[in-house]
Task: inverse folding
């Protein structure tokens, strides 16, 4: 297979784009930054399945497509299954010798939002990983059902305001914890699982390449800042993502074969989560005096989680 | 909008064909081909300007009307770092042979991300009103900012 050189950005920028403009994602949407980076990381043929969500809906507005690769428009729940089915058929036809160009390198990829991944397509994803398909599944985690108006998902963090977990006089927004999807996928024994962020472009490109190269099912959770539902100015998508990774709200790490955990990014100056929260409208209510305890609770969770990740890395088990 | 239906070898008929079909009449398993002809060569090895895009590719469409502000590019200060290229969500920074060539105003939505991530001092990309002429914008370019002492 041929990977694009990612030694530096200049070399990476020689990749010929296969994801076209004039899709209808919001200005500043991180989904397309992540998709572009995945597609630019290789020049292999790609077969991509997208679960219903902002990415799918906005890149296939009839009669237009933004994809220069094979791309399957599938249901909300079954991107994993569609990609797995294509991969299984490809393998079978290769065995039977009925492929036109059996030596052309092909990679199978599925994209799903957090709603599609953490909730609605959860068992389908679990099945794909358990059956061992050679598919890279990428979750575009914007922590809500953005395409249908910002409902809470099991990826929405504590304290966030969403249209179905509203902050007001009696509530401070979502009360339940964010599901640890990375740990769950690693527990399947998948060969490569990671959490990555587009602001750290090189770490993300490396992770994508590793997943594409690894035989078997790989899962990557990517942080996808959503200007509309997180409520920030579209120009700040990368700035917000910097705050997310540097406050350790989104630690960047990988887990190999369900065991060895490697931290891929250690911020030089860890910033308080408060700075990350303050930059987004969805957390505005937390800055009222009566909600101060929620910020403290979030900070405590973040500290404990970072401690846990470091210990696991050290232990190497 | 009226469009196409899957039938012949390529799976499509041309936009504007005699029998126009609405999106709600499209049959299951319809394929929209991104290119006019079956691609024998790997698309990743062909530069966008040399590809035979079909009318179905959003490359042939524009979102220019979304913008109220637009980025203007100043070649004199640019160091070709490609930050703007990697983070543009709309594939609208045109880079070829490691050089930043300019902005694709058919596909740029004016989000301003490229300006935020541009590292030069002053920036090589700045936002201006959509109506501003590029020459006028370049004439107004700010001077180098002195570093504030902390
Ligand atoms: C089975 C089913 N239920 C509900 C919907 C409606 N629906 C379409 S997109 C969407 C939300 C998608 O959220 P997510 O997966 O997080 O992607 P995002 O839009 O946030 O990128 C919903 C509920 C659907 N298409 N199919
Ligand atoms: S709502 Fe959010 S995820 Fe959806 S297109 Fe807009 S910014 Fe992107
Ligand atoms: S303003 Fe946004 S869409 Fe336009 S070139 Fe800059 S980053 Fe791309
Ligand atoms: S980010 Fe600025 S300096 Fe870097 S290539 Fe773009 S315009 Fe040039
Ligand atoms: Mg979502």
Result:
């Amino acid at each position: 297979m041929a990977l694009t050189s990612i030694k530096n950005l200049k070399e990476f920028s020689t990749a010929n784009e296969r994801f076209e403009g004039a899709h209808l994602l919001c200005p500043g949407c991180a989904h397309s930054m992540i998709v572009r980076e995945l597609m630019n990381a290789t020049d292999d043929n790609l077969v991509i399945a997208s679960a219903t969500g902002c990415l799918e809906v906005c890149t296939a507005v009839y009669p237009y497509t933004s994809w220069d690769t094979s791309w399957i428009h599938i249901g909300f729940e079954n991107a994993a299954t569609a990609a797995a089915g294509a991969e299984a058929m490809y393998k079978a036809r290769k065995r039977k010798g009925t492929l036109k160009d059996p030596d052309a390198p092909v990679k199978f990829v599925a994209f799903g939002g957090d709603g599609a991944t953490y909730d609605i397509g959860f068992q389908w994803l679990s099945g794909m990983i358990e059956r061992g398909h050679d598919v890279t599944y990428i979750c575009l985690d914007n922590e809500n059902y953005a395409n249908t108006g910002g409902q809470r998902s099991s990826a929405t963090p504590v304290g966030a305001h969403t249209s179905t977990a509203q902050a007001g006089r009696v509530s401070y927004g979502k009360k339940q914890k964010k599901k640890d999807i990375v740990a769950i996928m690693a527990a399947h024994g998948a060969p490569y699982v990671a959490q990555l962020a587009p602001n750290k472009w090189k770490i993300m490109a490396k992770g994508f390449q590793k997943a594409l190269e690894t035989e078997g099912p790989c899962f990557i959770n990517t942080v996808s800042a959503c200007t509309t539902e997180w409520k920030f100015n579209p120009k700040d998508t990368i700035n917000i993502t910097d705050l997310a990774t540097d406050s350790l709200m989104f630690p960047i790490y990988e887990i190999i074969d369900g065991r060895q955990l490697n931290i891929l990014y250690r911020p030089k100056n860890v910033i308080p989560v408060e700075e990350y929260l303050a930059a987004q409208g969805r957390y505005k209510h937390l800055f009222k005096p009566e909600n101060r305890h929620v910020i403290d609770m979030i900070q405590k969770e973040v500290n404990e989680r970072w401690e846990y990740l470091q210990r696991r890395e050290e232990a190497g088990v | 909008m009226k469009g196409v239906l899957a039938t012949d070898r390529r799976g499509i008929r041309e936009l504007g064909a005699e029998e126009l079909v609405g999106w709600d009449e499209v049959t299951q398993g319809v394929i929209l081909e991104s290119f006019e002809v079956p691609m024998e060569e790997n698309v990743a090895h062909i530069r966008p300007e040399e590809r035979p895009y079909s009318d179905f590719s959003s490359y042939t469409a524009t979102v220019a009307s979304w913008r109220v502000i637009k980025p203007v590019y100043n070649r004199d200060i640019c160091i070709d770092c490609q930050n703007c290229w990697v983070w543009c969500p709309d594939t609208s920074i045109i880079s070829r042979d490691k050089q930043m060539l300019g902005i694709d105003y058919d596909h740029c939505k004016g989000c301003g991300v490229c300006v935020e991530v541009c590292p030069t001092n002053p920036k090589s990309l700045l936002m201006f009103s959509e109506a501003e002429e590029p020459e006028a914008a370049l004439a107004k370019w700010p001077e180098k900012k002195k570093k504030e002492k902390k």
Summary: Chain B has three helices and six strands. Chain B has a mean pLDDT of 85.
